[in-house]
Amino acid sequence: MIGNGLRELDRFLNVLLDETMTLHRLRARPDQKNTANKWSAFQHWRGAPLSHDKRLRALGRSRNCLFYCGGYITRGDSRSTRFFTAGWPEAEAGSGRLREFVIGEFLDISVAELAETCAFYRLVATDLFGELSGNRPRPCRI
């Protein structure tokens, strides 16, 4: 269920990116399902630093692990690593590091981590809403 919820959040952000690109007369890419790649392209276009890329990629892997593997980690972030980076921060708030697991572990997410992840998606959407409305986005606390 959590994997499906994360899929819905990611899909909403993907569509919001297309709408933002269309507003700026850029070619929307509804065929591009990888939200992290779409976000990177948009950040490059607007000359902004590649913020959120690492986390969006980790969220994509986490979502797929929960949805397709029942939460059991079967592979690492890449072929050469045995560590899996989750899309949510470590338990210590404000550490800035994303939580890591080892292959074979169960990918769990606490209520606080899930709430923080939803706040992260809100932060990114608020940034895009500022682009859509022509206003500077208000800070979103996470």
Task: Give an account of the 3D structure.
With 142 residues, this protein is mostly helical. It has one domain (2-133). Helix content is 51%, strand content 8%. It has four helices and two strands, in the order αααββα. The chain has helices spanning 2-23, 35-45, 53-68, 111-133, and strands at 83-89, 98-102. α2 (35-45) runs antiparallel to α3. The relative contact order is 0.15.
Give the secondary structure arrangement, pairings included:
Layout: H1 2-23, H2 35-45, H3 53-68, E1 83-89, E2 98-102, H4 111-133
Antiparallel strand pairs: 1-2
Helix pairs in contact: 1-2, 1-3, 1-4, 2-3
Helix and strand element order: HHHEEH
Sequence stretches where pLDDT stays below 50 over 5 or more residues:
136-142
Which structural class is indicated by helix and strand composition? mainly alpha
Task: Give the averaged pLDDT, no decimals.
Answer: 85
Q: Which radius of gyration do the C-alpha atoms yield?
A: 15 Å
Strand order of the largest sheet: 1-2
Count, helices: 4
Q: Which percent bin holds the helix content?
A: 40-55%
Report the span from N to C terminus.
Answer: 23 Å
- Which percent range describes the beta-strand content? 5-15%
Tertiary shape: elongated
Strand runs, count: 2
Q: Kindly give the count of domains.
A: 1
Biggest sheet record: 2 strands, antiparallel
Keywords for this structure?
51% helix; 142 residues; disordered C terminus
Structure, briefly:
By secondary structure, this protein is mainly alpha-helical. The chain contains 4 helices and 2 strands; from the N terminus they run αααββα.
